[in-house]
Amino acid sequence: MHDPRALFDLTGRVACVTGASSGLGRRAALTLAAAGARVVGVARRGDALADLADEIGPDGAAVTGDVVDRAGIAALAADIAAPFGAPDIVVHAAGVNTRQAADDVTPDGWDRTLALNLSAPFFLSQALVPAMRGKGWGRIVTFASLQTTRAFPGGIAYGASKGGIGQLTRAMAEAWSPHGITANAIGPGFFPTELTRAVFDDPARAARNAAQTCIGRNGALADIDGPILFLCSDASAYVTGQILMVDGGFTAK
């Protein structure tokens, strides 16, 4: 039997992480690098990306770009492949939540949410898949949400985008898994990130969310390390089209 620890070894792999300038995206990039991958971080904030690349070291690179710019996707994919070669792994962590109530949703807020949270993961994956198919190995990881299946106040656009991620994950698996490319999603509970600052700035609300979990606390960034490594490695070779809820049991109660 092979050493089970080797299942999680990413030595020789190249990973691309969008939204890598902060939050769960930054944490995912650091985790994949620690497991041996060369990592290309993608975001619009070049200064924060440069800090990430510096922290990773020689196996880290930064590409400043906008994943929403559909006309620029081919060029962005080429820039991502430039430092280390075409990626074997793509983690789509870029996201936005306008928190507009249903009666107050604006066309711009709706379009920005769907473009970044749902359209960008598909079109960037589509651009990166040919190289993965050529190698017969690939990992696509998107970010679902509690709102993939639950309705929260002020979350109609965000929830629609994350509900779409659930089906996008299944559909990408159906299309590309015969070629050795798995597609899965992580569904985080409440983690302290820029996207959830409004939640954590309200101690009573944060405490209610913690009480809703089975474990009794909200997430810490370290809680994402194992799940992201599992879905990006050989350990999950027979897992595809799935949403792994990393929520302390929030959706179980």
In round numbers, the mean pLDDT is: 96
Please report the number of helical segments: 8
Ends: how far apart? 38 Å
**Main beta-sheet strand count, sense and barrel state:** 7 strands, parallel
Q: Spatial order of the strands in the main sheet?
A: 3-2-1-4-5-6-7
Number of E-type strands: 7
Number of domains: 1
Helix and strand run: EHEHEHEHEHEHHHE
Which of globular, elongated, flat, extended, rod-shaped describes the shape? Answer: globular
Q: Per DSSP, what share of the residues sits in E-state strands of 2 or more residues?
A: 15-25%
Radius of gyration: 17 Å
CATH topology call: Rossmann fold
From the helix content, strand content and strand pairing, which structural class follows? Answer: alpha/beta
CATH class: Alpha Beta
Helix content: 40-55%
- Architecture, CATH level 2? 3-Layer(aba) Sandwich
Low-pLDDT windows of residues: none
